[in-house]
Amino acid sequence: ASIMSNSTKYVFVTGGVTSSLGKGIISASLAKLLQARGYTTTIQKLDPYINIDPGTLNPYEHGECFVTDDGAETDLDLGHYERFLNVRTSQAN
To answer: Alpha helices of the chain — where are they, by DSSP H?
Structure first.
């Protein structure tokens, strides 16, 4: 039997400002695999645009936005994360 460490680990999925590379799907899929192995996961989405609400971005350039339960208009990646892991995200993510 292996003993899991309680220390926090971080996984960074990067791709610069290039959209539609599948970073959100990869992040959600990896989190689902880790969750299946007994780990607790969460996501922190960091976008390169500062003070711009994803809901105001051109959907042809950026894609759709996802609205969290607390009303935050976010990147669709948080929607993938919610659906894959059956957890709720918020503006804090």
So the answer is: 23-36, 59-62, 76-85
DSSP assignment, residue 73? E
- Average pLDDT in the 14-30 region? 79
Task: State the average pLDDT over residues 22-35.
Answer: 89
Instruction: Give the torsion through C-alpha atoms of 60, 66, 67, 72, to 10 deg.
Output: -80
In terms of pLDDT, which residue wins out, 51 or 24? 24
d(CA 55, CA 60): 12
Quote the Cα angle for 72-78-80, to 5°: 140
How confident is the model over 67-87, as pLDDT tens digits? 888 888 777 888 888 888 888
Residue (of 31, 33, 26) closest to 42 by Cα position = 31
List Cβ neighbours of 38 (8 Å cut-off, separation of 6 or more). 4
Instruction: Provide the token pair at 81.
Output: 């994360």
